[in-house]
Amino acid sequence: MAQESLTPELERTVAAAADAAPAVAALDPRDRAAALVAVADALEEHRTELVEIGTTETGLTTARLNGELTRTAVQLRMFADTAIAGDEVDARIDEADTEYALGARPDVRRMHLPLGPILNFAASNFPFAFSVAGGDTASALAAGCPVIVKAHSGHPELSDATAQVVGDALRGAGMPAGTFGLIHGQENGVAVLQDPRIMAGAFTGSIAAGRRLADIAAARPTPIPFFGELGSVNPVFVTTAAVAERADDLASGLVTSVSGSAGQLCTKPGFVFLPEGHGLDAAIASAAENVAEHRMLGPRIASGFARRRDEILAADGVRVIADGGVRLDDDEQGWVTATVVAVSLDDFRRNHDALIEEAFGPLTIIVETPAGTDLASLLPEFFAGNLTGTVHLSAEEAAGSTGNRAELAALVGALSRQVGRVLFNGWPTGVAVTPAMQHGGPWPATTNDSSTSVGSAAIQRFVRPVAYQNAPEAFLPAALHDDNPLGVPQRRSPAGDSTTWGDAARR
């Protein structure tokens, strides 16, 4: 039954998605894949006009948006191949077995099925890759779910233009009416999230907004999964040997990572732990001076960054390395340059509450650690979950041939427990669109730390398991047929195998 709070326009959109869900789920995965490729091709055909709109609305550079559109097309094609491969189906077949170790076993077949209509809240800082045609949309469509996108208010014209391209491509590929829809407005997004026909939500944005939406999803009469990617400060640890080996590269790499896209990236390094006496101040300041000012996404984000920057600069013990700044133009748009500050480990401890909150913009805090500091112990002391954690090592340390190998292994282990991606000798900005990528992490990085919003595993968010017992083949999904017409991976447990369970452990 439709929810009374939906406007007629919203009701049409949600009803169309609900009506389309069985047909989309029943499509041959190869047909879904062809539709995704058609969307990718269409985006690239309309590249010039879309990038022009995006540049005007977001202030992001033409080069950045062209690269992001390419990334969006690539990930659509990746999910096309993912749909055909069928790994997310996780088909398991247990043959009937009269000699089963616990008594007669029935024929049991299990697989994942699409959840149904998905509501995707688009992000502000990635107007292509995490927006209308982004990874959440692509992975949900690949899974066999209709998608409704709640457009971000920061780029409404681009959202409408992209939705037109996506919708036309899907229709041209023969996808059912209602497979894809777009809505605007925060209140409308909340109303649709509460509708019982929506089966899951996806979100990229702030901790406050993501928590509110996750709570709404959980408080429904029938709670639904909500996959939110929220805040992250992405700690970086640099060893003394790494500084000695490549000081200038570390300084320039840090500034590039912090200042790229005006620091409006969820993977920006917010805290860098450097040894006391690192001597990088001059190189960092010089690198920062060479970075031109960049417009932020909008006035609200600029004012929030300016406020957070002032709070950090006012904290006790903070030393400015690169002052940076915020300039407001006549339209109240914020133009920013990189700010890099440093603080001793003791002052970081004393002022933890004032410093730890994310600054969404081009600012990073260097924490200077005394020799002998147990770096692994700093993670649970200072940080909750994060998307990334980074370790910079010397070549000798990377080879595992130094005396501090155990300490470094402990640091890597601690990072593995608190982040979704552990990097070595790199910077966390720039998330590769590749099957093995993990873009998620424990709270507050995400609302569900077993999921990812990048990489082919993102499709697993939008399916659920169902088992069929003693089902006639005529009523089984194709993925569970013995002749496996879809060619998906099937894990079979043949009759008689239970009598040998445990033998491998005895060898």
Automatic annotation (TrEMBL):
CDD domains membership: ALDH_KGSADH
Coiled coil: none
Source organism superkingdom: Bacteria
Region annotation (Disordered) ranges: 481-507
One Pfam family per UniProt: Aldedh
Residue intervals passing through the bilayer: none
Name of the featured protein: Aldehyde dehydrogenase (NADP(+))
